[in-house]
Write a structure and sequence with these properties.
This protein has about 350 residues and is an alpha+beta fold. The chain has a single domain, classed as Roll (2,3-Dihydroxybiphenyl 1,2-Dioxygenase, domain 1), CATH 3.10.180. The protein contains twelve helices and 15 strands. It has an eight-stranded mixed sheet with strand order 3-4-5-2-7-12-9-8, with helices on both faces. A three-stranded antiparallel sheet has the order 10-11-15, with no helix packed on it. Strands 1-6 form a two-stranded antiparallel sheet. Helix 3 crosses helix 4 and helix 3 packs parallel to helix 8. The longest helix has 19 residues. The mean pLDDT is about 95.
Length: about 350
């Protein structure tokens, strides 16, 4: 029998063996390991969601999955630092709220707050970091970016609107009510949390129809990021492992023959260092000019590594972990999903 709310929720959703296997992969913050009760706190629901999303990313990124299982076999657990996702501030987004609003309605009730805003001017996006109010250093952050189509050509904007107009909102009225209740009380009955979690997981996916080949090429010509969103939607673009020494990890993975970024991205303050595996390749069906469905290979998601230093906060005179991001780092890391062209299978 599960002794904590977190394990009970995971076991209820995945089954005992599957839940145990997932728990064995990750360092689980002590703040989320609370005894079984009839109600669960927002931090427990947030941790359950993060674990489910981390596993979902691993299924999509074979190199990341291999790395994680190598680490576990070596006696190490993954310290999940953050997950990243992309949105579009479109005019026509179907029934889905535009831009980051599709996710702030989830993150805020779960206890997240804006912990930094990062202009990504080279790629016409804005990134926002969301940290958890109840345990900012240990609960994985979300790096939520928003693309601004109005910075691009009229043809590009029309194509974005056409693609996104088919979006369907996965959050139904009951789930929206549960999020409102969670935001107000910071807890939910465990049965309601179990009903809500699969809906939240489903939000981190593509909600619109796949583009045609012509639409994809139009988007790709001006924005690799928008082309990626057109095929992958709001899925995790990457998940990130917090490691003590990102340089050593990169060297070790390179020695194993894994495709990892050559350059370590270093923040301007020198305290945050990042690198990543190359994005996986996925196959998507798109219509050609004759309406025939063609399989194309396009960039998928990837797995990232980050090292964060501690520093003395001058205002509080307390040591803190540097939880910030860096606009230059982010734009460099985002290149991992850039692709010159889609290729037919």
């Amino acid at each position: 029998m599960s002794s904590t709310n977190l394990q009970f929720m995971l076991t209820s959703l995945l089954g005992a063996e599957h839940a145990s296997q997932l728990s064995d992969l990750l360092q689980i913050p002590a703040s989320t390991l609370r005894p079984r009760s009839d109600t669960v706190s927002r931090i427990e629901i947030a941790q359950a969601l993060n674990m489910l999303l981390f596993e979902k990313l691993l299924k999509a990124v074979p190199q990341g999955n291999d790395y994680v299982h190598d680490s576990v076999r070596a006696g190490n657990k993954i310290r999940f630092d953050h997950g990243a996702l992309r949105t579009v501030l479109g005019i026509s987004t179907g029934t889905l709220p535009p831009g980051e609003a599709a996710f702030t309605r989830i993150l805020l009730p779960l206890g997240y707050f804006v912990n930094g805003v990062y202009p990504l001017q080279r790629i016409s996006m804005t990134g926002r970091a969301y940290a958890h109010e109840d345990d900012a250093e240990e609960i994985a952050q979300f790096f939520l970016s928003e693309l601004h189509p109005h910075h691009f050509s009229n043809e590009f904007q029309a194509t974005v609107n056409n693609v996104l107009s088919t979006s369907q909102d996965p959050i139904d009225a009951h789930s929206a009510q549960l999020l409102q209740q969670l935001g107000a009380s910071k807890t939910l009955p465990v049965a309601d949390a179990l009903a809500l979690l699969p809906v939240l997981v489903a939000c981190f996916d593509r909600q619109h129809d796949l583009p045609s080949i012509a639409e994809y090429q139009t988007l790709l010509a001006e924005s690799a990021e928008m082309a990626w969103i057109s095929t992958e939607g709001n899925a995790f673009n990457h998940a990130t492992d917090r490691v003590p020494n990102v340089e050593q990890v990169a060297d070790a993975q390179r020695a194993l023959g894994r495709a990892i970024k050559e350059k370590i991205e270093v923040s301007r303050n020198g305290r945050v260092r990042q690198t990543a595996f190359r994005a996986s390749t996925v196959t998507r069906l798109m219509r050609d000019e004759n309406g025939v469905m063609v399989e194309l290979k396009v960039p998928g998601s990837f797995y990232e590594f980050i090292s964060r230093d501690r520093y003395l906060d001058e205002e509080t005179q307390r040591e803190k972990l540097d939880l910030t991001f860096d606009s230059g780092n982010a734009q460099g890391i985002f290149k991992m999903t850039a692709s010159a062209d889609a290729t037919s299978c």
